[in-house]
Design a protein that fits this description.
Elements (H helix, E strand, L loop, with lengths): L3 H9 L6 H9 L5 H7 L1 H20 L11 H25 L15 H11 L9 H40 L2
Helix pairs in contact: 3-5, 3-7, 4-5, 4-7, 6-7
């Protein structure tokens, strides 16, 4: 009588991942255009914030600009919506590249940096460069925040000095 159990075991056994599979996973492309656009999105947000503040100050001082008064709303919302769209494009591209685990693009609703962190944690840990977009994004966020703060501080100081000089010139008349 034949022993059926040994035949069934050899047929049903699934091979384990070997060294060639590991090198294939680590060599899989990890960078997309979308993730780099997300990593540099803090600069777009900073420009939008500066332009919105200038627009609000111009409206408060009754200075007429070539933009309508409500234009600050798209200046602040369009970069946010672009971040969500870029995250969706990045997640779709990573799936198309064959990554087994990809961060959901819905993390981008909490902000581009949150998606970049989630993406870095979701990718295979054997991919050594998976953290680069996250660090670049966090560095850009820090630099753009500092730049915006300094720029608005300088512009605010100049506006106050201008208004003080203007008030002094009216008082001396």
């Amino acid at each position: 009588m034949d022993d059926q159990r040994t035949d069934d075991v050899t047929v049903a056994a699934t091979p384990l991942a070997g060294p060639t599979d590991v090198s294939t996973d680590a060599a899989r492309p990890w960078g997309t255009v979308w993730v780099w656009l997300l990593a540099f999105m803090p600069w777009v947000v900073a420009i939008g914030i500066v332009m919105a503040i200038v627009l609000v100050f111009a409206t408060a001082l009754s200075i007429t600009l070539a933009m309508p008064e409500w234009f600050w709303v798209p200046l602040l919302t369009v970069p946010y919506l672009l971040s969500v769209a870029f995250a969706a494009g990045d997640a779709a591209r990573l799936r198309a590249l064959g990554h087994p685990s990809v961060a959901p693009w819905t993390w981008a609703f909490l902000g581009a940096p949150v998606y970049l962190v989630a993406r870095s944690m979701a990718l295979d840990p054997r991919i050594p460069k998976r953290l680069r977009p996250m660090w670049v994004g966090l560095l850009n966020m820090t630099l753009s925040t500092l730049t915006t703060t300094v720029l608005l501080g300088v512009v605010g100081t100049l506006i106050v000095a201008f208004l003080a000089a203007l008030a002094e010139s009216y008082a001396n008349r």
